[in-house]
Write a structure and sequence with these properties.
By secondary structure, the protein is mainly alpha-helical. It has a single domain, classed as dinb family like domain (Four Helix Bundle (Hemerythrin (Met), subunit A)), CATH 1.20.120.450.
Length: about 180
C-alpha cells in the first residue's frame, strides 16, 4: 500500500468511527457490558495507542535502527497484517496486555466531544508524520508493538487504521 492509500485508509476508518460516535447517545458513553470497556474507554484506548506511535515516528531514525534494528523482510500487506493480528488476539482470547489497556479510566459523558477531538488530533498528527517519512524509511525501520512484536513502520501505520476499525466493530456489536 502506498502513502496516499494508507492516508485514505486512516481517514476512512476514523471518519466511519467519528460518524458512529456523532450518532451515539451520550448517555451510553460510560455504559457497557459487565467487565467490558465502555464506549469512552474504547476511544481513550485508541488515543493511548496512537500517541506513542506518533512519538515513535518522531524519533531520529538512527535511534530506531539502534534500538530495534531494521527490516529483514518485505512489508506485509494490509490483509496479511489484519489476519496476523486476529490470530494473535485469538491466541490470547482477545486480551492484549499493554500499558495502554490496563485500568482504563472512565471519562464523564461531558468529556465526550473533547475526547473525540483528541482522537482526531492524534489522527492528524499521524498523517503529518506519515507525510514526512520517505518510502525507504517506511520500509526500513522497525518499532515494537505489544502483541505483534517488531513491526516495519509502514505495517504499524496500516495496522493503526485497522485498530480503529477493530474497536469500531466492537462498539457497533454492542449497540
Amino acid at each position: 500500500m502506498n502513502k496516499p492509500e494508507i492516508k485514505n485508509l486512516i481517514n476512512e476508518k476514523h471518519d466511519s468511527l467519528f460518524q458512529f460516535l456523532a450518532d451515539h447517545d451520550t448517555q451510553k458513553w460510560n455504559k457497557g457490558p459487565e467487565n467490558k470497556w465502555t464506549t469512552g474507554q474504547h476511544i481513550v484506548h485508541l488515543i493511548q495507542s496512537t500517541k506513542p506511535l506518533n512519538k515513535a515516528l518522531g524519533i531520529p531514525k538512527f535511534i530506531l535502527q539502534y534500538k530495534f534494528g531494521k527490516a529483514n523482510r518485505p512489508c506485509r500487506s494490509y490483509d496479511e497484517l489484519v489476519s496476523r493480528y486476529l490470530e494473535k488476539l485469538a491466541k490470547v482470547n482477545g486480551q492484549v496486555s499493554s500499558p495502554y489497556s490496563n485500568n482504563m479510566p472512565l471519562t464523564p459523558p461531558s468529556e465526550k466531544e473533547n475526547i473525540i477531538a483528541e482522537l482526531s488530533k492524534q489522527k492528524n498528527i499521524l498523517l503529518k508524520k506519515l507525510d514526512r517519512l520517505s518510502d525507504k524509511q517506511l520500509n526500513k525501520y522497525l518499532i515494537p508493538h505489544p502483541a505483534m512484536g517488531r513491526m516495519i513502520l509502514r505495517e504499524i501505520i496500516m495496522w493503526s487504521a485497522y485498530h480503529v476499525e477493530h474497536h469500531h466493530n466492537i462498539l457497533k456489536a454492542k449497540y
